[in-house]
Amino acid sequence: MSSDCSVDDAEKGIAEGCYAIPITLQSSRPSIVSQDSCSGKGGLPPPCLPLPPLPHAKFETIALTLPSKELSQNELALIRRPTKKRVSSWVKFRLWYNTYRRFFTLVILFNFISLICAATRTWEYPRNYTGAWILGNLLFAVLVRTELFTRFLYLVLCSAFAKWPPLWFRLGISSALQHVGGIHSGCAISAVMWLIFKCSLIFYDRVSLNGAILAFGVLTNLAVGFAMLSALPWLRNSHHNVFERHHRFMGWAGVVFTWVFVFLGDAYDSQTKTFYVSKVAHQQDFWFLLFMTILIIIPWLTVRRVPVEITIPSPKVAIIKLKRGMRQGLVCRISEGPLMEYHAFGTISTGIESGEHYLISGVQGDFTRRLVENPPTHLWTRELKFAAVGATSSLYRRGLRVCTGTGLGACLSTCIQNPNWYLLWMGSDQEKTFGPEISGLIKKHLYPDRVTLWDSKARGTRANTVKIIKDIYHAWGAEVVIITTNAQGNKEMMEGLKEAGIPCFGTLWDF
């Protein structure tokens, strides 16, 4: 999903304000800033005490009035945004060259070196079995993007290594699981390189081959190449529907062309100039292609049209309620039709026994605008859900989940279902914006001991995001911070936390 550029700076997490400013709060109810945490009565476990003055969430409406006297220069300085600290080049490089890019680099380098060896006849195997290298790469590219396989990986790794190994090892598991897309991209591009090499060999030996093999080799190249180009970051993020349409349907066309290409190429005998179908099943590329096709089909067998309830608590947000309880850390994709325009949202659920889950959608694009203007009674979804980095929360003894605005949808289930996780939610007038259902879940399951709500409208200032996260991280005794926000907020929070040596994971903005 592309970042939401319409939210204010507070929700982007880019402000560097202080905890309080000299503005009088008038309310018949208690202040939104709780003093419990200052006195060590916030309900946190004894090992974390004494606590810094961290405000707990209280859902209430507070009227703001300007002070009666003119503010002094010192008071104005509290409101002004302080100078940003310079982030070291090493931290920036580490964030840029993340595990995604490391996976990508390793896959590309391995395939590129192998390709050079094949082209120079240094290594004959990939030259003689180029089809197997093409389909092997495509198989891995599809495998790491298949819901069934990724769910299996999360289940095995998060169950086997929960809490007991060293922290660096558990952080490595989370990072690897979050960034498997680097393997997908690297294998897909490598497959195209091998496909071009394969076609060059075919055209070099075109006299002894059937013309149909040459034709379908070119068609396969074009289809797979277009599918790859449609996934370029600038196109995918700026024109999501164009990316989805071309990547999916050109990819499917590429699979069909590949089947024909493999059958013709493996069955053809250049000596007798005839086709022997019995030869096909004895080739590696046939089995790679068969397994890849099965992996592509499996998720589509779980597509269902399901009833939904949509509430519009404010013009900015739509709350979508679906049946079935969910484990934490899962992503739900919904669409108005069975084939096109699937949109991913984090799921909110109290557990698999609850019988329901919620999605929070910011009203930004055409799809969500249609949900508000003409709420449907049914939507299409895949019953097999995708796992996200939040699903690795069980690896850690304690953690902090940070989100802004609608990013709550990816965070709340983790904190509800795991009592060792703390929620920091930043936004503007959250209870009014997101409605009683969402705020009710927070009140029931997290308030007051495991949530801090930063309401920029009620406080009259924007959050010094990194400082608040650091304070809660140390007070709560967390091992890791997981952030869900937009690109700008993600960049600034991750830079600040990495500079401070705090383990953290953010929203993945891959390349």
TrEMBL record:
What does UniProt give as the signal peptide span? none
Entry keyword annotation includes Cell inner membrane: no
Q: Which UniProt keywords apply?
A: Membrane, Transmembrane, Transmembrane helix
The organism sits in which domain of life? Eukaryota
Q: Does the keyword Transmembrane apply?
A: yes
Q: Transmembrane segments in this chain: where? A: 103-123, 129-145, 152-171, 177-197, 209-229, 249-265, 286-303
* Name recorded for this polypeptide: Non-ribosomal peptide synthetase
